[in-house]
Amino acid sequence: MKVSKYNIFFNYQNKVIGFNGISKDYIILEKELYNLYITCLNSNVDDINIVHPEFYEYLKSKLFIIDNSIDEFEEFKEEIKKIDFDDTKYELHINPTMNCNFKCWYCYETHIENSSMDSKMIERVKLFISNTINNNNSKLKIFSINWFGGEPLLAFNKSIIPILTYANDLCMKKGIKFYTLFTTNGLLLNERKLKELKKFNVNEFQITLDGHRERHDKVRFCSDKRGSYDTIVKNIILAASLGFKVSVRINFTKETFDGLENIITDFTNIDEQAKENIVFDFHQIWQDKTDLNKEQKAAIDKFAQNGFNVITSLDYSFYPSYFTCYADKKNNANINHNGDIYKCTARDYTKSNREGILNKNGLIDWNDKYYERLDSKFKNKACFECSILPICRGGCSQHAIEKKDTNICIHHFNE
Question: What predicted TM-score, i.e. pTM, was given to this entire model?
């Protein structure tokens, strides 16, 4: 037997806590037991079985001790590969327009007026959906559409409703579960749109606030005399009251925290069911390099103490190993309004970043960038022996592509 390379130990309240990244399980040890573990680790781990058989079997059951024949690194890679190449799911992202009714200073996208899908491109998208659902050898169980942009609701009638109608009807006919969600600024939501979207299994909205009213309206304004905060908050509450899940993404910089607790007041006196449908999610704007973890944690605690659902992770690189980014998956595509195909939605929609084109037959002509992405992960030597690999997974495929010639931790972690 040997010790797992993915064991991590730390002191806590006169005990030693152990975590194993493969089993995703914790153990709590008296320091005498931990010292026994360390002593035998430096000689022969099987000696634990001689001194304390019960402890030895416990460590085996939690995968802290494993068989000599096991190659944990290779097995972990295979586990992630099964997730990334899962043919039972397809996740489609659609940018029906790259135009937007806001001009947020930190947005990385180039907003393009008059950039909505034309009727020919809408038909190509429908054909792509048909090809994807009909040509999967009955393996496909779940099909989802994520609406992105630009501001997708600008194309509500022209693009979204025709495509949603087609996809929903086809999935119902084939017995495939259909989900759809929107990343939107929320300004254009109203009761009519929401009730219409109910027909198409729209599950969730992600809507952003840039702090409380004064701060938010400096970033997201309709005109020099009209902000957007009150309208967006009203629409969030309306969507939640109609049964939609709403992830309220609070983008922050060091200036945002002033008055942030006033958002709590604006959401306090709402129906309990609506409140349950809302979750607050804090993200630092990427251009701001200030260390704001302390302020972020204080805000998270404040919202949670007031009974709100809050995503508590301070760093999204720490998803468990069964989660991988949609861009890592074979069965994912992001169709831009003009038919250009991408995988990652967090980079500019330029021709140089394009990974394929949606052709007139509703099929994707992938280029070399796509195949490079599918074979990009777990090439960084810094990851090979790192004990936290199952936690951070070595980064996403986009990181792997951009850092392919480096042999250092892409997160700059000290193990």
Answer: 0.88
